[in-house]
């Protein structure tokens, strides 16, 4: 959204005092830039959220809203309740603002395709582990393939990242997901499955017979290294615990895999990890008890209307190439018990099943 306003030429000075040639709609003169602002107010849920997304003060956004109401000749916001809500007229004009924003994005895409050059800023949100695994490599790929792009890498968890994607603060978001409970794709975004892996049960050294099987009964009544609620590792553990009747005495919580490694090294308790992370532990071992489910790494990218945004498309392609490079490096180490799938042909959970599948 911020990029759309930039393409419309909306600077801080213009936001305070717009003098652009207005568009005429149903006999009413309306400034299209203010319709873009109204769209952001509708999507963000209020003036405060819109001002944060646009990078302007709430008073500046409020002034533009008041001027748009004056142009329209009808109230666009109902201020009688505890919170400001758009009126029917406000919702109608916000929809037109959305169409203007989509048209600007389409125009940008076609213009860039005509010139064969992708340029401008692109913001990429990634979870912490992805930064070291493959995301920084993607920046090098982008510098080589699209030197006119200005990528911005932001560490972002799933919840914060989804909010930033909806507000237009991110163009691309990488999320870790679980195959049994994939994150719904937000409106105006497209998903791509980049990486698919299994889960593994990992035990600290000294737990059970080093070369022998572990009994599920030995995993109950002992501490576990857990994960944030609703995260892929947490969902995998819940399935594993339900299948084998495991009840921890306490669940420690580790957000990132490096924290899991440290807790395993300290002998705190077992953990569930994606296979590609489990095989890299140095102070523990992988048990042979199967863990149901699949671990996913997906990218969500903003789309302009029904068409891709070129900068976001370029970023996704670079991320996919970087992921492939990381997987190849893992494969070259000949690590046992790891067979992740990395392919542009993987079907994302948001896609409809193909015929015969």
TrEMBL record:
Residues 345-357 have a biased composition (Basic and acidic residues). Coiled coil: none annotated. It comes from the Bacteria. Residues 334-357 are annotated as: Disordered. SUPFAM superfamilies: Periplasmic binding protein-like II, Winged helix' DNA-binding domain. Keywords: DNA-binding, Transcription, Transcription regulation. GO terms for molecular function: DNA-binding transcription factor activity; transcription cis-regulatory region binding. Signal peptide: none annotated. Residues 30-87 form the HTH lysR-type domain. Belongs to the LysR transcriptional regulatory family. This is LysR family transcriptional regulator. It comes from Streptacidiphilus fuscans.
